[in-house]
Structure formats: C-alpha cells, structure tokens
C-alpha cells in the first residue's frame, strides 16, 4: 500500500506520535479508571432508517438523496434516548432543508467499532442500496485503542476502498476525529497523551481521503458541555444537531 503524501509538518507530528507511545502504561491505568467511572449507554431506541422531508414537501424521486451514516457509537446514537435525534436523521434533515428534496437515511453504527472492524465486518454486509452520500464517523476508537499509524493507514484506507467498491456512485465524507481537549470526560493526563496521536490520526486520515477521492470534514472545536450527554463522551441531542448542521455544510447534492 502506498503511503499518504506528507502534509503540514509530518516529521514533527510523527515524532510526537511515537513519543506518546512511551506513555502507554500511564495511559492504560488512566483509561481503566476512566472506564470504571463512566456509564456505558446502549444505542438509542428506534429504527435505524427513515426519511426526511424538505420544508415544502419531500421533492420528487429524481431529486431524492440517499444517505448512509457509517461508524462507531456516535453513528449508533449512543447516549441519547431516540434514534430519530441521532446523527443520521439530523444530517438527513439538514440536507433536505438545504437542497429542498427528500432524503432517505440509514444509520449503521456500532459500539466500540474501529475503522478495521467496519471494513471487515460491516461494509460487505450492508444492503447494496444506491446511496448518494456516505458519511463516515469513525477513528476515535482507533485513537483511544492506541492503534499505530501504520495500522490506521491500512485499516482506514481499506475502509475507503471497500466503500468505493461496494458503492461506486456514492460521494463519501469523513467527519474528522474530535480533538481530545474537546471531550469533557477525558482527564488532563489522558488528553495530554492522546493529543499528538489525534493530530497524527487526522493528518493520515486527511491524506488518505485526498488521495482516494473522499472529502474530509474538519471537526468542530470549542464545544460546550451541553453538546455532550451525561457520560461526557458521546453527543447529546443538541450535540448531534450541531454536528449535523456542521457536516451538512460540506456535503454537496449536485
């Protein structure tokens, strides 16, 4: 597999990434403590597919969009009560409003899913629907699981190839990994250790997206505490709504 081209200050980014590996024992202890005091929510209740209408009606079949949101627990609407308030339906509603058309949506999200798990166990099991747009919400579990840069390149790059092979007509977008400093539940130590790793994961992901025809959507920054649910990790209803509005700005419908 050809490596992504350099971007920004890759040497500095890679050095900080590798140095952070030395802190793995500290990170493991801090992570276990964090997990012990964090409530684990199930996915939200409700169907994982639906339809969003535009303000003046759903639009005709010719103009209808079909959205797949694929990813981790955030794509599964973990942390909130109703699936209809999750990322996929919120993005669909934003696209319907912006482009004045109906949007069929499907959420395929799973607790703790990494990009490799999505590549190996999810993509080939999805129904072969003619999705016009695919939004990937993944990478944070690769980050918190301390995956190496080489592993992330291989697995995220493979996920992109798998999606392009199965859905060749789809426009694919990646919502970049949220910065550790913007996740309230993370302790200062965990944030410090993960910070350079997040920078490198985002750099590698952006390079892969650019080379393989995927749009990388920057993460939102400076999120308020109310954008997260009670666990301080997953989005709240308000957080999903804001996230959806942000990513929809980058998703074309032409």
How would you summarize what this structure contains?
The chain is built from eight helices and six strands; from the N terminus they run ααββαβαβααβαβα. With 254 residues, it is α/β, with parallel strands linked by helices.
What report would you give on this structure?
By secondary structure, the chain is of the alpha/beta class. The chain has a single domain, classed as 3-Layer(aba) Sandwich (Rossmann fold), CATH 3.40.50. It is 41% helix and 12% strand. The chain is built from eight helices and six strands; from the N terminus they run ααββαβαβααβαβα. It has a six-stranded mixed β-sheet with strand order 1-3-2-4-5-6. Helix 3 links the parallel strand 2 and strand 3. Helix 1 crosses helix 7. The longest helix has 24 residues. It is globular and about 55 Å long.
CATH topology: Rossmann fold
User: What is the radius of gyration?
Assistant: 18 Å
The CATH C-level name is: Alpha Beta
Structure annotation, total helices: 8
Instruction: Provide the spatial order of strands within the biggest beta sheet.
Output: 1-3-2-4-5-6
Count of spatially separate domains: 1
How would you sum up the global shape?
globular
Structural class, from helix and strand content? alpha/beta
Q: Give the name of the CATH superfamily.
A: SGNH hydrolase
Shape-level CATH architecture? 3-Layer(aba) Sandwich
